[in-house]
Amino acid sequence: MSTVLDNIKPDLMLGGSRGKEALLSIAERKSRFPCLRKVKDKKSSSIMEALRAIQEEFGGSFEELFETITTDHGTEFSRLPELEEGCNLRIYYAHPYCPSDKGMIENMNRIIRRFIPKGKRLEDCTENEIIAIQQWLRDLPRKKLGYHTAQECFLNECRKASIC
Predict the structure, then answer these.
(1) What CATH number should be reported for the domain holding residue 120?
(2) 120/102 Cα distance (integer angstroms)
(3) DSSP label at 79?
C-alpha cells in the first residue's frame, strides 16, 4: 500500500528541573505537521500511551499516512517497535549524539521554546495552552513549504491519496 507522508519524527522536551511532566513533540517530515502531547513522565510507557492516542486520532488512516518513525536512542523511545506489530510502520534510530539527523524536529522544539522557555514547569501549562501552541505551529507559514502552512500541506497530501 502506498503512503502519502513518509516519516514521523518524535522528540521529548523536558520541563523545569523539579517537574516530572514532559512534552512529546512529533512532526511529519514532508508537511511539517505537528502533534504535541503532554506526558506525565519520560517513561516509555507514558510515551507509548501518548503515541497510541495520536494513532487513534488519525484512525484507520494512520498506517496509510505514515511509513516510518525516526527517533533518537533515548530509553523513553525503547518501546516504539511495538507500533510496528501488525502494520507496515517501520522504526529507525538516528545516529547517537547527532542532532542533525533530526534537525527538523529540533527546529520545531526551538519554536515551542518561545512559548515554554527552558526551566518552566510543564505542570504549569494547561492542555488548552498546549493545543493553542500546536495549532499555532500548524498555521505558521513556512518558507520550506512555499509559504504554505503545515495544515494546508498535510490536507493536500491526504486529498491526493483520497484519505481525508
Answers:
(1) 3.30.420.10
(2) 24
(3) T
Q: What is the pTM of this model?
A: 0.88
Grid cell listed for 113: 521554546
Which grid cell is 128? Answer: 488548552
Question: Cβ atoms within 10 A of the Cβ of 52, count?
Answer: 12
As a whole number of angstroms, the distance between CA 47 and CA 38 comes to 9
Distance (Å, whole) CA 129 – CA 111: 15
Owning domain of residue 62: 7-159
| Calpha distance 83→55 (Å, rounded) | 9
Identify whether the C-beta of residue 15 lies closer than 8 Å to the C-beta of residue 120: yes
Domain count, the chain: 1
Mean pLDDT by 10 residues, the chain (164 residues): 68 83 91 94 93 85 80 89 83 82 88 93 94 97 96 90 72
| Strands (DSSP E) found in the chain | 7-14, 22-28, 34-39, 68-71, 90-93
- The answer to whether residue 54 sits within a structural domain is yes
Using DSSP's 3-state secondary structure scheme, residue 93 falls into strand
